[in-house]
Amino acid sequence: MSALPPLNALRAFEAAARLRSVSLAAQELHVTHGAVSRQIQVLEEHLGQPMFRRVGRGVAPTAAGEALQRAATEAFATLQRAVETLRRPTRSPALVLGCPGSILARWMIPRMQRLQQELPALTLHLHAHEGEFDPALPGLDLALLLGRPPWPAGWQVHTLAAERIGPVLSPQHPSADALAADAAQALLDHPLLHTASRPQAWPAWAAAQGLDPGQLRYGTGFEHLYYLLEAATAGIGIAIAPEPLVRDDLRSGRLIAPWGFNETGGSWALCLPPGASEDARVQRLANWLAVELERAGLSPEH
């Protein structure tokens, strides 16, 4: 049986291949750029072939590198899950659910009382997460997120509903009455609130409406969707948002959505990390979330 490459070399390679950058791999692993480069060299010498090729300022794995990266990512995710299990030798009575802060604040928390009433035996610990999820979902039993395939290798994915987005504004917005009576093209005359976490939301919506995304005018930007929607409800401007996150505001009259919502090709999904064992609580939660999304006006994907 041939010897495996050194673990440090595999770890450095996997991070650089996944992130397509030696510098970003160094940041993730808390080592220097040179240390990652040396470990990759050790791996290539061990295997007798190159694992990367240069692409602009970054790197991309060769065909052999891609095959090894898929195997390494899945293997490290499985190891991470095993370590988390060992750190919790007895089964926790609570499921740790991670989700973006905007989903947590505007959708999950307002529904926690109903969740407790309808699934009294289920206990959740909610964890706000910003940015990309680590493929191993460390510290989490599952994650509720908006996304689209391909999902990280090994994830167990419960697809709950299609994602739909649309423009929303407060009835107190200075142009609310005129906009509500006009076609979607009227938005081209207004500066639009936008967020760094979803830079393609407005262009994708405009294209779905048959509008030229290049004619969109952008106003105030926000780091997170939660603050974007708070600004919209305050009458500061016109935002774009996933339908469930604003459905309660639409029903209460705090926001209006004159042009409705369009599917993006993405999905609401409940995702489990690689190696997660079967748990009846997860299926009950997935079923409950799907029903809640239907209550918000969404139809499950088929």
Automatic annotation (TrEMBL):
Molecular function terms, GO-annotated: DNA-binding transcription factor activity; sequence-specific DNA binding
Claim: S-adenosyl-L-methionine is one of the keywords in the record: no
Residues in HTH lysR-type domain copies: 5-62
Protein name listed in UniProt: LysR family transcriptional regulator
DNA-binding in keyword set: yes
Keywords of this entry: DNA-binding, Transcription, Transcription regulation
Protein family according to the UniProt entry: Belongs to the LysR transcriptional regulatory family.
